[in-house]
Amino acid sequence: MNTLINKVVLITGASRGIGAAVARKIASEGAKVIINYAGSQVEADQTVQSIKANGGDAIALQADVSKADQVAALFDAAIAHYGRIDVLVNNAGIMITKLLKDTTDEDFTRQFDINVRGTFNTLREAATKLANGGSIINFSSTTTRVMMPTYSTYVATKGAVEQLTRVFAKEIGARGINVNAVLPGPTNTELFTKGKPQEVIDRLASLTAFNRIGEPDDTAKVVAFLASDDAKWISGQTIGVNGAMA
């Protein structure tokens, strides 16, 4: 439908998984896409090539979102290449699942640095560098709505992202920019399935209305809609994308 034609979209952590699916979907709707990656250059380049092979326009730019100077350089490089950024998708994140008593200081710091500080860093840049009338989509998680052992620190980071989303929506709305968060449920990505026995995945699938876990494209379609002008009156919201799991 080309609902995003000529929009320039920056997606953090987009080399694989849901981020790569979002990049491909948004590119298929006509957007120019900046695929940010931290260390997975080969996969980022492969995602760029798959977009170009389907007639899209994309580049890959490296930056660690937890580092403010690298995020500033990321925005500047994207604007130097495409002239502006219309949409920011904050997908970069990590998940460490341990009982709270077993969580180390390093586990805590690493998750907050990437999941929360990373979002904070990009929002701060977007406050002055995102184009008027743009859109921001942050990534939280359906785990903030359920009480799953071993997820305490992870959901703490995602709860912080949700609060940043609500407040920043009010701060930046005067420029016509809407800000929302999506909350994927269990999704068939390496981040989620790695190390989980099949019976655990099957049990989580049974908690949805459709008796399956999500696919990356399920979330990508919602992000593409929120990035479009059709969603401009939606702002400050946290939207579950989880098949009625919660």
Commentary on this structure:
The protein has 246 residues and is an alpha/beta fold. It has one domain: NAD(P)-binding Rossmann-like Domain (Rossmann fold, 3-Layer(aba) Sandwich). 45% of the residues lie in helices and 15% in strands. It has helices at 17-28, 41-53, 68-82, 105-129, 152-172, 190-193, 198-205, 216-227, and strands at residues 8-11, 32-37, 57-62, 87-90, 135-139, 178-184, 237-241. The protein has a seven-stranded parallel β-sheet with strand order 3-2-1-4-5-6-7, with helices on both faces. β2, α2 and β3 (57-62) form a beta-alpha-beta unit. The two termini are 31 Å apart.
Largest sheet: 7 strands, parallel
β-strand number: 7
Separation of the first and last Cα atoms? 31 Å
Radius of gyration: 17 Å
Q: Give the count of helical stretches.
A: 8
Query: Major sheet: order of its strands?
Result: 3-2-1-4-5-6-7
CATH class: Alpha Beta
Order of helices and strands: EHEHEHEHEHEHHHE
Task: List low-confidence stretches.
Answer: none
Write the CATH fold name.
Rossmann fold
* The named CATH superfamily: NAD(P)-binding Rossmann-like Domain
Overall CATH architecture? 3-Layer(aba) Sandwich
Based on secondary structure, the structural category is alpha/beta
The whole-number mean of residue pLDDT values reads 96
Could you estimate the helical fraction of the residues in percent?
40-55%
What is the beta-strand fraction?
Answer: 15-25%
> Which outline best applies?
globular
